[in-house]
Structure formats: structure tokens, C-alpha cells
Write a structure and sequence with these properties.
The chain is of the alpha+beta class. It has a domain of 73 residues: Integrase, N-terminal zinc-binding domain (Arc Repressor Mutant, subunit A), CATH 1.10.10.200. Helix 2 packs antiparallel against helix 3. The protein has a four-stranded antiparallel beta sheet with strand order 3-1-2-8. Strands 5-6-4-7 form a four-stranded antiparallel beta sheet, sandwiched between helices. The protein is globular, with a radius of gyration of 18 Å. It is built from ten helices and eight strands.
Length: 251
């Protein structure tokens, strides 16, 4: 599953400890508010809201912030819309952006400016969507699991398509339709994911030489820093060595 945004998710989790905390909280608040607008304020009947709350708790978002995001008025929620943008980073790497915004004109101008700055290109909506599949993805710290083999069998029975252990994290992937049942299985097993949600997984990951890949990772990082961008998906294959090299250059 190399190439999807697990790199971004792990950074998202670890980033809660640094100066980016307020930006992370802001994006999570938007997700909670839109989830309430979509399917109501009861997490029991709203899988998207349940995931958003779990993700907020995983980065130690204060309870008051979470409750404030849930209780925002309908008028506040109506100001925010969900939009997506697609394009190519340098060297032919596909980028798929999920955004939440109260000003679409501002957002598209910002997205276009980032593509242009890094010699990429903004494409028509729908032109790249065939490169990605919508999947449920759960990221779990493995210190919650006593018996990995038994746990893997449990989640396979609940609909897991892929089970991957890497470092301190376990990543479980399901079909979009099985996302809710996997949430219930996590609750049944008293497992609290570090992050969970519906993601766009590339059908094929593209491998670049290190220099080119590092440039594309810079583009990805720049999109993630934009306040209106909730999620960045791409088809660049990223391994541990590449992440380590990028972090050295960024520090």
C-alpha cells in the first residue's frame, strides 16, 4: 500500500506535539461540523462523525473544542462546502485534494498557485479520479494489541482487505462499504484508532529517484499546510528511507 497518504497520517499524529497543533484542530473542527451537517449530531448513527471525534481525541484536541464543533449552528455549517481538486505534481505524480471552504474562489486560487509554483498543473475534476479507489483506512498503535495474529483474524472476519504492520503502527484497509462494520469491530475490541476514515488509495504507486521524489514531497507538504485542504492523496511511492531523508532536509 505504499504511495497512499499514510506518510501524511503519521505526520498528522506526530504533528500534534508541535506548533501545527492549532491548524490540526481547525481542520478537525471543520470535519466534525460537516459530519454533523451531513448526518446529525449523534455519533452512534453517524460513522463519519464518530471517526472525526476519534481522530480529534487521538491528537488530544480538548473536549470543549470537540463539543463546540458539534454544536455549531446550522448557519455556521452551511457556510462550509466540500470541494475536490485534481492535478499533477512534477514528474507526473497525481494529486487528489479534498477541501472544505467557505470561499471556493479563494481556495481554487490558492490551489492553482501551489501547482504553478512547483511546475505542476491543475486538471479538470474527474480526470484523475480513476487512479484512486475509495477505501476505509484505520491506523492503530500496536501497543493496544496483545496478540497480533488473533487481532488480524478478527479484523479479517470484519471485512479487512489488507493488514500491514510498520513500526509502531498497524494499518487496516477495508472496502468503502465495510468501513462502518470495521468501526463497530474496533469498538467491540476496545481499540481506539489513532486515525480512521475514508481515503483515496492509488491503484498503482509511482516510484521516482530520490531527488525527484523529495521535490514532490515538498509539494505535498505545501498543500497540507493550506488551511482549506483537509486531505492530500497522491500516487508517489514513499518508503522509510525517503521519509527520513525528507525530515533531515526539513529540519
Amino acid at each position: 500500500m505504499a504511495g497512499h497518504n499514510k506518510w501524511s497520517k503519521v505526520k498528522h499524529i506526530k504533528g500534534a506535539e508541535d506548533a501545527k497543533r492549532s491548524k490540526i484542530f481547525s481542520k478537525l473542527s471543520k470535519e466534525i461540523s460537516v459530519a454533523v451537517k451531513e448526518s446529525g449530531a449523534d455519533p452512534e448513527g453517524n460513522p463519519r462523525l464518530r471517526s472525526a471525534i476519534q481522530n480529534a481525541k487521538a491528537v488530544s484536541m480538548p473536549k470543549d473544542n470537540i463539543e463546540r464543533a458539534i454544536s455549531k449552528s446550522d448557519k455556521d455549517n452551511d457556510d462550509i462546502i466540500e470541494v475536490t481538486y485534481e492535478g499533477y505534481a512534477p514528474h507526473g505524480i497525481a494529486i487528489y485534494l479534498e477541501c472544505m471552504t467557505d470561499n471556493q474562489q479563494r481556495t481554487v486560487a490558492s490551489i492553482r498557485a501551489i501547482f504553478n509554483k512547483f511546475n505542476g498543473s491543475l486538471s479538470k475534476n474527474g480526470s484523475l479520479s480513476f487512479l484512486f479507489d475509495r477505501k476505509g483506512v484505520f491506523t492503530i498503535k500496536n501497543d493496544q494489541i496483545e496478540d497480533i495474529d488473533s487481532f488480524e483474524l478478527e479484523v479479517i472476519d470484519a471485512g479487512a482487505e489488507d493488514f500491514e504492520t510498520e513500526g509502531e503502527f498497524i494499518t487496516i484497509t477495508t472496502a468503502k462499504e465495510d468501513f462502518g462494520s470495521m468501526q463497530k469491530k474496533m469498538e467491540e475490541l476496545k481499540i481506539e484508532p489513532e486515525n480512521s476514515g475514508l481515503e483515496r488509495i492509488p491503484n498503482n504507486a509511482e516510484r521516482l529517484d530520490k531527488g525527484k521524489a523529495l521535490k514532490v514531497m515538498k509539494v505535498i507538504e505545501r498543500f497540507e499546510e493550506d488551511d482549506d485542504v483537509q486531505n492530500v492523496y497522491h500516487n508517489l511511492e514513499i518508503d522509510d528511507d525517503l521519509v527520513e531523508e525528507y525530515e533531515k532536509l526539513s529540519n
